[in-house]
Write a structure and sequence with these properties.
With about 80 residues, the chain is an alpha+beta fold. The protein has three helices and three strands. Helices cover about 40% and strands about 30% of the residues. Helix 1 packs antiparallel against helix 3. A probable RNA-binding protein.
């Protein structure tokens, strides 16, 4: 559910939504979500001074509740 929500949010931000993919991994520290975007869109997802990335992490953290979630941004 968290991966789908994050993918939906990121697809709304970028210019190349077909290049967005979110991979979820579960580990001993919680869930890790890896977002891959087109290299031209990486700046849009990070935002000025990281504000957009921080907002995405805040929303996903709120959806996760007590579960520990980490969001990583990677260019495809």
């Amino acid at each position: 559910m968290l991966a789908n929500a994050l993918e939906h949010l990121v697809r709304g931000i970028v210019d190349n939504p077909e290049d967005v993919s979110v991979r979820s991994r579960s580990g001993h520290r919680g869930t890790s979500l890896e977002v891959r975007v087109h290299p031209d869109d990486l700046g849009r997802v990070i935002g000025r001074s990281g504000r957009t990335a921080k907002a995405l992490r805040t929303v996903i953290g709120a959806l996760a509740g007590r579960e520990s979630v980490r969001v990583d941004l990677v260019e495809a």
